[in-house]
Design a protein that fits this description.
By secondary structure, the protein is an alpha/beta fold. Helices cover 32% and strands 16% of the residues. Bound molecules: NADP nicotinamide-adenine-dinucleotide phosphate. InterPro entries: NAD(P)-bd_dom_sf, P5C_Rdtase_cat_N, STEAP_metalloreductase.
Length: 213
C-alpha cells in the first residue's frame, strides 16, 4: 500500500485525496489549522485517509503533494521530506502571495523555489494547470481518443516518472517539460495554463510560452 502525504487540504489537496483513495492509495492530509479541522473531509474520504500535522503527513508519505498558497512554501517541513519525491501544485498569484521579485523577473520558477527550500527532496511539478474540480471529473482511461494531458517537470527523472504514473492512474496523459528551470512554461497565464488540451496541443502550447508575462 502506498501512502501519499498531502500538505494543504483546500481545493486541490482535497481533490487529489478523493481521487487517490478511490484508486486505493492511503492518504495522510494536513493543513495549517490542525488535524481536528479536517474531521469532515476525513470522514468523507473514508478508512484510507487520516488527518495529521504537515510534519506528520510529510513523514508518513512514501511521496508527498505540496498544495498550499505559494506564500506559505517556506513553512513546508524540510527534514521529513528528505529523499522523497514531492509533487508541487503551487502557482504564483502576486495578488495573494505578494510580489516575489525573482518570479516577476523570470529568473526563477515556482517549483524551483520549492526545490531550493527542500534541497534533499526530489520536486516535480504536477496538477498546477488543471482546475481542482476537474481532477475528479476529467480523467479517462489510457488510450482514450483526445485524452487530456497534464505537464510535469523535474530535475529527477524518477520524480517525473512517478508523476507520469500517477497522472495515468488519475486519467491523464503526461507531457514532460524537462528540468525545473523550464517549468515556467506551464505557469500561470501561459498558453498551457488551465485549458483542456491533449498531449499534442499541450506540447504546442508549452513551446510557444513566453518567459515573462
Ligand atoms: N484551486 C485550483 O483550481 C488550483 C489549480 C491548480 C493549482 N492551484 C494551486 O495549488 C495551490 C493550492 O491551491 P488551493 O486552491 O487548493 O488552495 P486553498 O483552497 O486556498 O487551500 C490551501 C490549503 O493550504 C493550507 N495551508 C496554508 N498554509 C499552510 C502551511 N503552512 N502548512 C500546511 N498547510 C497550509 C490551507 O490550510 P488552512 O485552511 O488550515 O490555512 C489549505 O488547506 C495554490 O498554490 C494554487 O495556486 C490551485
Amino acid at each position: 500500500m502506498t501512502t501519499i502525504g498531502i500538505i494543504g487540504a483546500g481545493h486541490i489537496g482535497s481533490q487529489v485525496a478523493r481521487k487517490a483513495v478511490q484508486l486505493g492509495y492511503d492518504v495522510v492530509i494536513s493543513n495549517s489549522r490542525g488535524p481536528e479541522t479536517l474531521a469532515e473531509l476525513v470522514t468523507e474520504l473514508g478508512p484510507h485517509a487520516r488527518a495529521a500535522t504537515p510534519a506528520e503527513a510529510a513523514a508518513a508519505g512514501d511521496f508527498a503533494v505540496v498544495t498550499v498558497p505559494l506564500k506559505s512554501y517556506k513553512n513546508i517541513p524540510v527534514e521529513p521530506l528528505a529523499d522523497k519525491i514531492v509533487i508541487d501544485t503551487n502557482n504564483y498569484y502576486f495578488e495573494r502571495d505578494g510580489h516575489i521579485p525573482e518570479l516577476d523577473k523570470g529568473e526563477a520558477t515556482t517549483a524551483g523555489l520549492l526545490q531550493e527550500h527542500l534541497p534533499t527532496s526530489k520536486v516535480a511539478k504536477g496538477f498546477n494547470h488543471i482546475y481542482a474540480a476537474q481532477i475528479t471529473s476529467d480523467g479517462t482511461p489510457p488510450g482514450t481518443e483526445n485524452r487530456r494531458a497534464l505537464a510535469t517537470a523535474s530535475d529527477f527523472p524518477e520524480a517525473a516518472e512517478l508523476v507520469t504514473k500517477l497522472y495515468d492512474e488519475f486519467g491523464f496523459d503526461t507531457v514532460n517539460i524537462g528540468p525545473l528551470n523550464e517549468s515556467w512554461r506551464v505557469e500561470r497565464d501561459r498558453p498551457a495554463y488551465a485549458v483542456r488540451q491533449n498531449a499534442a496541443e499541450l506540447k504546442d502550447n508549452l513551446a510557444k510560452a513566453p518567459r515573462t508575462i
